[in-house]
Structures
1.
Amino acid sequence: MAIPFQTGPVVCGTVLAKLELLGGRAFLRRLIDTFLEQASAHLARMRQARETGDLHTVGRSAHAMISSAGNLGATALSDCARDLERLADEGRTDAVDERLEELEALFTLVRARLESVRRELAT
């Protein structure tokens, strides 16, 4: 039986519930773990690339987060990553800095929600 996830502003509970129905609790836990690990790595690469002025790497790493965040129902994070990719491609350094900060803040909220869901799945 599926866990009744709450739909919140950072992660769509309906998407998570559908993923659980599709593959079960263990499947959803693995998806969450993989996403959190990879998204953290992408953010670290973006920060490092931004410090060295490598907007191409910022854009590539942002691109990698777009679908993975969307697939877990984190649409605001996905949309922000999409915008960051576009800004990096356009070479808009100041806007990239602002959007990267926003992406990091959104990821903090998404991570907290997904960690909570993961704990629920473990019970």
Note: Residues 1-7 have pLDDT under 50 and may be disordered.
2.
Amino acid sequence: MVKFQYILKVGERVFRRAKIMVVDSNEYSLNQLYDCLSKEFFNVLCLSDGNKALIEAKKEEPDFFILEIDISSLDGIDLCQNIRKFSESPILFLSTRSSNFDKVLALRSGADDYMTKPYSQMELVARMKAHLRRSRIHGSSAGKSHLFYAGVFKMNLATQKVVIEDREIDLSVREFHILYQLAQHPGRIYSMEELYELVWGNPCVGDLRTVMVHISNLRKKLKTNVDDIEIIETVRGAGYRFNEKVLKHFSKI
């Protein structure tokens, strides 16, 4: 196990000296990532065992996770799902697996991003900083006013809770902020590229499946008792929008 390395360059802005947990069974990959991230003045913890990583994650509370799918004792997918039970820190898979199936599976397990090996260290660091920047912005939202719609659709930005028809909906951080972005402007169409840039905080690089997966999960969670009314509508060839009919129906209740 490589312990956290606390390095701080005077005057360097280092994203709150963010703690990064890297879990990979390949020693060469761990050493490479440790060297790369240490140069960026991150505090880095490298592990090769999934169960040990889960224990350390609960104790150390990292700000960011980099996971490989193929790790010992507890694979990366199971580890990601377990981390999501107690942490909303960004999770990025960095894996030798490049199939669409593995990418979608990782995103559905709770990951925020996916890169394949071999990879560009510059791109990896840029993505990490964008996720950390977005995560920090969302974390500083406490104290803002609630967002109410017709009394029965309520979003609490401070607690990131959503209530629909007196039913509390459990959403991930990304799901909440996608819904919040759409709900602020009912009827406005957001392209997948726009949503990615607004919610993930970095320019879209072409792979929009992570947006599609999060929207799909949101729709499953946001089922209402109203027949034929979806809260999030797909506008073919354009993107997604918050359904104004939902508000009109709720206002009549």
Note: The chain has nine helices and eleven strands.
3.
Amino acid sequence: MLVQGQNPLRGTVSYLSSQHVYVRFPSTGGLSVGDTLELPGSSGSRPALVIESLSSTSCMCTPLPGITVETDQEILGAPRKSGAPGTAREKDKEPAATLPEGEEQASENKTETEEVRERGTSREKNPAWGNLGGRVSLASYSDLKNQETDGNQRLRYTLNLYAKDLADGRLSLETYASFSHTAGQWNLIRENLGNGLKVYNLSATWQVSESFRLSAGRKINPRLSSVGAIDGLQGEMDLGSWRLGLVGGLRPDYADYGLNTGLFQTGGYVGYDWKWYTGEHAKHPRLHGTTERRGRRSQVSVSAAPEQPS
């Protein structure tokens, strides 16, 4: 926390990922893992970011709830006095921040021993398999009748898995699928697997550069959620607060939500992020090679985040 009369360290946001904020300082001397960085304001600074790891000139941080920052935004840090308890010890134990390509990871006077130690501890905290998680669930719906006719039982299995920050934070995989069937009606599944299996998300996203990412597979674009799932390719480029995107592929089948090569569609969208998102896109779905319809959709998402106490 900054106190009156203290000279803060002044840095800028250099890169934004899906989970972390990278802040660049002339030097991170006096900062430690667990410290809170602050946003300057007319009425004083307010807590914004918590340092997870750091190198000699950069910090990898996690934003506090309700905090939104932008690239090149000024960030303030409160350096500890030399010799403060835990400062040097914590910096030695914590790994250097894993920065995007092109970011400098260390100063020129860093010793070889320090670099080896940072590389080793970085692998321990950020393993090659990234951030894994998921959930498997089973639900049963039973209909019991006090009649001569038998009741029925319906089973539903759900799988939700994700793997993020693979390949040095550039690759993410995710899937969400369900399988359901009614007891005694397995013949419907044998006739068409799509009567029971529904794949809502099965995609891979590659962060090509700091400003461009490409997704392949079946995925619902959060900026085009009203369109639904798209089987194909989706690319999005960040131009400051502007977002430009192109999509191309297939729509899921109307009957069983399976793959349908006759439902081709292409489109694009443009949006601007500033505590709210507004976007507009044009689509040209095709049915067996013939344009089925042309249209434009607009989507607005509003996000109101409470301010953090200063």
Note: The chain has a mean pLDDT of 76.
